[in-house]
Amino acid sequence: MLSDRMQSALNDQINLELSAFYTYLSVTAYFEEQGLRGFASWMRHHSNEEMMHAMKLYDYIHERRGRVTLLPIGEPPHNWATALAAFEDALRHEQKVTAAINRLVDLAREERDHATNSFLQWFVDEQVEEEAVVDAVINDLQRIGDFGPGLYMLDRQLGGSEVESGDTPSAT
Ligand code: OFO
Questions:
Q1: What is the pLDDT of residues 59-101, one digit of tens each?
Q2: Of all protein residues, whose CA lies closest to atom 4 belonging to ligand 1?
Q3: Of all atoms in ligand 1, which is nearest to the CA of residue 53?
Q4: CA–CA distance from 19 to each of 96, 106, 118 (Å)?
Q5: Which of 131, 107, 110 lies closest to 12, judged by CA?
Q6: pLDDT value at position 161?
Q7: Domains of the chain by start residue, with CATH
Q8: Contact between 162 and 127 (Cβ < 8 Å)
Q9: Closest Cα to residue 31, out of 146, 168, 166, 151?
């Protein structure tokens, strides 16, 4: 059985994951509008992963005979000046999620909730990968700068890498 505090914190995490889903879907729509179909495809895959994270928490709460409470999701941003700005926003979001996961782990340990602590380790590892793949694209975009053909090539590469987000190719 989950404590009320733990249950509420896990429900907040569902909300954060769904808000990541919503934000990345908005980034996807922005890339579609810009005609960057490879970027759009990559980001869509990433947004779907966020939905999967939310559902993992949803299932876990039920497994522990807890109660899922869905909370409102704020309106995401709709526009970015550049592809780089959109990815930098995504990285900030990932860092926020990482901090929230770390706080959840702290709470689980404080409450000696070993099952939740164990469950959360998957998220701890996942966040390392999530930050790394977004950071890799940022590095590529920084290197490309205003060089149009470089952006075109990266768009093509990202469009071909919509399998695991960890498979993000380098632009160089
Ligand atoms: Fe759910 O990992 Fe990204 O935010």
A1: 999 999 999 999 999 999 999 999 999 999 999 999 999 999 9
A2: 94
A3: 1
A4: 11, 22, 24
A5: 107
A6: 64
A7: 4-159 (1.20.1260.10)
A8: no
A9: 151
**Ligand 1 atom, smallest distance to 127 CA:** 2
Average pLDDT, the chain: 93
Atom 3 (ligand 1) nearest CA: 94
DSSP alpha helices (H): ranges in the chain? Answer: 4-33, 37-63, 83-110, 114-144, 148-159
Tens-place pLDDT, residues 29-63: 999 999 999 999 999 999 999 999 999 999 999 99
Ligand 1 interacting residues, C-beta cut-off 6 A: 17, 20, 50, 53, 93-94, 97, 126-127, 130
Atom from ligand 1 closest to the CA of residue 126:
2
As to burial, measured by CB atoms within 10 angstroms (0-12 exposed, 13-18 middle, 19+ buried), residue 98 is middle
- 8 A C-beta contact, residue 102 and residue 135: no
Which atom of ligand 1 approaches the CA of 96 most closely? 4
- Which of 50, 91, 133, 168, when mutated, tests ligand 1's pocket best, judged by the most ligand atoms within 8 Å of its CB? 50
